Amino acid sequence: xxxxxxxPILSLEVNGHPLTYxxxxxTSQNPVxxxxxxxxxxxxxxxxxxxxxxTLAVESTDLFEEARRVVAEFVGARxxxxxxxxxxxxxxxxxxxxxxxxxxxxxxxxxxKFALQEGDEIVVTEQEHHANxxxxxxxxxxxxxxxxxxxxxxxxxxxxxxAEKVITARTKVLAFTHVSNVLGSITDVDYLVKLGRxxxxxxxxxxxxxxxxxxxxxxxxxxxxxxxxxxKMLAPTGIGVLYGKSxxxxxxPPFLTGGSMITKVTMxxxxxxxxxxxxxxxxxxxxxxxALAEAVRYLGHLGMENVHAWxxxxxxxxxxxxxxxxxxxxxxxxxxxERAGVAAVHVxxxxxxxVGQILDTEGIxxxxxxxxxxxxxxxxxxxASTRASGYIYNTTDDVDRFLQSLATxxxxxxxxx
Length: 417
Known about the structure:
The chain is α/β, with parallel strands linked by helices. The protein contains 14 helices and 17 strands.
């Protein structure tokens, strides 16, 4: 696979073995094009954006805003729909804190559409990453709203029949993941959006595991807000994105306040800029934004349909191979069902941390633990799991090495059927 040459870290050896990196669901690796883009910014244009009239300031601002255009186009958005954040967790917190501020009367009459109170309901799912659960828990506590959730089935996939009962006329917010970070299951977004629209709810999508791996158009999906992170899609850490319909963002009170997001300040009052700048207080992560745009160009050159098709093949191979190993339970969609390039497993009689250590001795990097999804694991009757997550630079050989090593875990500990 020629593109592997673009990723210097993949040439490493770990514990005397070639690195097999199957932890991109947590953090992806960076191609040289992205690394060069960030370095070139620092050596050729580094300056504060939106704050100066000198040449470097203008060049930095142009790069910063051009990146917004590139990222917006990538996800089917308009430029003023895109807000830069530190990560997806901050993006989701931005929405919940803004709603909380509206609930306290901030933002004036226009913001009251976002206000929650006792009797209102916030609906999430039992699959959620903690970043799309805890902020809503906190919002419910602050406002008196009730938090409800769509349960999962025994295999961890969503119980859509129950969704129709959970989402009601009282639902003010419906927040759910596009692709489960644990299971690789792909949510029927159209179905849940339909239910949410019938209820009159604001719809929030956790797109961290979808935007890097498949074609995504937020306007076509008709979600109101969505969040994703650069470090899961070839970009550096420290940069995330909030998508919000600009017609909604313009009425939302800000989350963070300070410099760069104001038009007028007196000693007692402040007036805020229009979005997205209203939500970008303080010095911005300019180099990371520039690098994210380069990552988007890299993925765009590959074609997201091609990315999705390849990862579906990896997921299929993972699922089939796991199903053939005695004493290992495949979590999530069954073999033959649609899944992303992810497979989480429960090895009978062996703690996931021990599984991970055995794999690591052979240079295979996977994720172990609850993957910031404790309720989901609890619903499946386990505390943690071992997750292999592939990406564009993974090969079928990587999958086979993982499967071969996984098959040795239970015998290593003397567990035989």
